[in-house]
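#lab-general

N.A. 3:47 PM
ok so I finally got the sequence cleaned up, no stray characters, all 404 residues accounted for. can someone with queue access submit it? mine expired

B.Y. 3:52 PM
send it over

N.A. 3:53 PM
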Amino acid sequence: MKIPALKFRVANKYFAVEMDKIKHFFDVEDVLRLPSLPPFVVGIVRYNNYVYPLISLKKAWGIEEEDSSTAVAMVYEDNDYAILIDEIIKIDDLEKKENFLIEVFEENGEIIGNLNLEFLNNIEIPTFKNIFNREKNKILEKKESFLLFKCKDEVLGIDTKILRKVEEYTGQDVFLLNDAVITLLPFSKIYKECSLKNILIIEKDKILGIIVDEIIDIALIEENEIVSGSGMLDRYFIYNNKEVKVFNNEYLEMKLEKYGVVIPKKQKKIFSDVVEILVLDIAGEKFAVKMSNILEIVDFDETYFNFTNENPHVKGILTTKEGATFILSLEKVLGKKIEISEDTKIIVLKDGVLKALLISGIKDLIYVEKEKIIYSQNDTYIGGVVIYNEEMIPLFNLHWPKGL
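B.Y. 4:20 PM
back already:
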């Protein structure tokens, strides 16, 4: 059976570890050295909010050779360890099998050892219950999604739970949505004067369009990173080193009640059962993903791509709070190259499996009726289509490539 695995080298020995046991790759900097530890336990090392015992396999095996500064954090027997290695060879699907009653990996006839850390089981060394191992699902449930837009020198946010649609503003005083006339309210009636470029449509018992400036991004923010306030801007958080002020949902609902129009009965179904869709730009092509499948939106960093790999669709690896995951690219199937710019991002996705996707940028946030999402029944990178304003937008298949 082939499974995704990391192949690496320690001295002249080659090993592989299943990807679902890998958490992070990092360069070791500060090490807390403690007395009374075995010589192969270099000390305690920290990476972001994670803490690990740092293990030297060379010292454990009596190899008189200096360790590198590269560490792989992994799970073994329900404990977390950081292991010093010399070289990451690649990440690929490897054949796992039993050979002489022990588990090994095989690649093109070559036997690769499945790293065995049994010698750690009976030794008193400190291990740590990193919070994201035990409570990752609880933490992910506490993420909030916000649409960010500009107003002069400020960055403002609106909770996507009260949004129903985002449209480009073309200068008209009213907007026609599925034969329903919607009142448009300049942003100065909500907050202050700014340029008018996009329409944010909010809806409850009534419906209203608010005209705002340039839309910047979609941000998924953990609840514990949001600071509560009061008034019409009742939440704050830091995004790309800038303060974001978030509008109070109740304040916007008051504006909706005052300026909005009642939704005709025949139109209510339009807004009663919709799916939030993020439209992506990938090398000039549009793709869609459901917001419910997005765990994180990460800025591009070239260090994520410093890993060799034989899978043509895998560009690198990214560490998330759920662990390490592949960064996929559609460049090969599209026959186009993604040009790196300030808009380039990585979308972290989950639908049973954890994956990340390299994109050129974010184009739009739309709301689509469930029946207008049509799913495919094949294993290609297209998981279906989203029908929006008579346009068909390919839905990215979160389970592509098969077996990864």
